Every structure is written in structure tokens, then in C-alpha cells.
Amino acid sequence: MTIEITPEDVLVVVDVQYDFLPGGSLAVSGGDEIVPLINTLARKFTNVVFTQDWHPADHISFASQHYGKAPFETVDLPYGSQVLWPDHCVWNTHGAALSADLDVPHGQLIIRKGYNRLIDSYSGFQEADRETLTGLAGYLNERDVGRLYLVGLATDYCVGWTAVDGAAAGFDVTVIEDATRAIDNGGSLAKAWVDMAEAGVERVMSKDILG
User: Fold this and answer.
1) Could you confirm whether 158 is annotated as catalytic?
2) Which of 63, 80, 162, 206 has the most CB atoms around it within 10 Å of its CB?
3) Is 165 annotated in the active site?
4) pTM of the full predicted structure?
């Protein structure tokens, strides 16, 4: 299978931030390995957008905000079950910054998510209450774009949720698998691929994309 990228297609670069890279507070194993590949892929696209986790220091998804709880435990919040995370991507910190190794000067948009203290947000399209929209779909609809190609971190959380929500919003979505890395907590990666497949999300490797 070979894929030809059109001028209308969009590369969506999900959460390539220092806290998700080796040495970060919520590091995804091998997260730094995908940055050169993302740079190479980005040169094939006219349109590139980014998502960026952007939390206040007292965000409700942080285990530090729940007495007696540890990272990766869960709590019930008004919008449902919430995995508790180490403090990460706190706004205006180095950990929240997009990697300086990204070489994508033609990137056009950064969508920040998770800045509401009371709602987490994995997806680039809507927050975890499944009601609050980020505005990404509106932007893409106004641009009248083609297929969305997703890369970044982490496959089983922010990439997967963004892919599923993108498909639900009416976009054709493809995940470039080798340009993502996963947390894979308790079978989360396998579940994410099942959820994406059920949503109609395609799955390819970077070698399938013509340069």
C-alpha cells in the first residue's frame, strides 16, 4: 500500500512535549525516537497542526491533588472515571513546552487542551466531559481539509482519543503507527487500537507514505 499526500491533507502532531519525552515526569518510552520521523513526515504536508497538553498546577487529573492517591490509580469525577497522573505539562514550565527538536516551521496552529482545572482532556477535539469542544474541528472545517494523519504521544491516550473523536467529527483519520509511542498501562494500547478500528480510523506505517 502506498499513500500520496494531497495539499489538502493535514498532519496532526499530538503532544510532543518534554514531560512526555525521556526525562519528563510522564515519559513515554521511546518518545524521543519519533521526533526525527515527524520532522521528515511534516515536509510532505502543506498543513500541520499541533496539540499541546496545558495544565494548571492544581489540575484535577494530578494524583498530587487527591489525598492518599498515587499516580495511575483512578478516581470517579463528575464526568466519569479518571486516571490520576504525575504532575505534568504545567503551563509555562519546560515540561509543557513542545520539543525544540521539532523542525516544523510551517506548522499553522497549536490547540491547547486540559487548561480547565476541573476537566482532563486527552483528545485534541473535545475534553473528557465529552461536551466541551476545543475548536479544532471548527478550524479544520473552515479550512476544508482532506484526510487527517496523526502522529505523536501517546498512542493509547491522546493520539487514540484524538483519532476517535476526529472520526466522530466526520474526518477521515489515519494514524501513522511508527510515528507514535504508547504508555501501555494495563492493556491500554490494545484497547486503543480496537477503539480506533471500530471508529473507522486507518492505521499505516510511515514507509507507506510517498515522499
Assistant:
1) yes
2) 162
3) no
4) 0.97
